[in-house]
Write a structure and sequence with these properties.
Elements (H helix, E strand, L loop, with lengths): L35 E14 L12 E16 L9 E3 L2 E3 L13 E7 L4 E7 L3 E4 L8 E13 L5 E13 L5 H6 L3 E15 L7 H21 L1
Protein name: PEP-CTERM sorting domain-containing protein
Organism: Hydrococcus rivularis NIES-593
InterPro entries: Cyano_PEP
């Protein structure tokens, strides 16, 4: 299967897709929109390898995320009634087609399924962003964030563009990841924040979600430049 992994650099942890590695509890980034969104939390088993270069976030990574015990932690706006309900997330393998044809095909239909019958189709995913945050005791800890775009589809067939970010963490530095994955993988926790963007579209226009990430990043860059000037 062909993997369509977008390698665009993250200006801010928004607009593309992801998962996370963690041996500690995750801390989700959240979004604010006119329509609302929801935060997920649960467990994930991370297996695979980081390729010949041994470096995380490069195009020869081959990592699979198997999700379990997923629950809606909080719901906001149109999703406020989902707080505390269960959700499911399909397994996701990130691997570029030229190097490993066994990656997940994007868009991934019904990537997330909610208790109200609504689903989220994953349209695009960016390379991870790693942030080192030592504990107060000086122990190295690394946060991992993957941002993403996609499309929400309601049980009645209505659709909305969506975006979000998966966040997790692990004890150690990025250089420790090859060893952690090689020793049976990581059984960790994660959290994720999803937001609905107030532009309805038909499911046939799901490709529009792929371009939303680039638009959002340009908008963010423009605001940052204006503040700097």
């Amino acid at each position: 299967m062909e993997t369509k992994l977008l390698k665009a650099a993250l200006v801010a942890p928004l607009a593309a897709a992801g998962l996370a590695l963690s041996v500690n509890s995750a801390e989700a980034a959240t979004f604010s929109t006119d329509l609302g969104g929801f935060d997920l939390g649960g467990g994930v088993n991370v297996t695979g390898s980081l390729g010949a270069d041994g470096k995380a976030g490069t195009e020869d990574d081959n990592v699979t995320f198997s999700f379990n015990q997923t629950r809606v932690l909080t719901g906001r706006g149109i999703y406020s009634g989902l707080s505390g309900t269960e959700a499911t997330i399909k397994d996701l393998t990130l691997a570029p087609a030229p190097l490993n044809p066994q990656g997940t095909v994007l868009p991934l239909d019904d990537f997330v399924s909610l208790a109200n019958g609504e689903t989220f189709t994953l349209a695009s995913i960016n390379a991870p962003e790693f942030v080192a945050r030592p504990t107060p005791g000086g122990q190295p800890t690394t946060f991992v964030q993957y941002s993403f775009d996609g499309v929400f589809k309601g049980s009645s067939g209505t659709t909305l563009i969506g975006r979000g970010i998966f966040t997790s963490q692990f004890t150690g530095t990025v250089d420790d990841l090859p060893g952690l994955l090689a020793n049976g993988g990581l059984q960790t926790s994660y959290s994720a924040s999803f937001a609905a963007v107030p532009e309805p579209l038909t499911i046939a226009g799901a490709g529009m979600a792929v371009g939303f990430g680039a638009f959002f990043r340009r908008k963010t860059q423009g605001k940052a430049k204006a503040k700097k000037d």
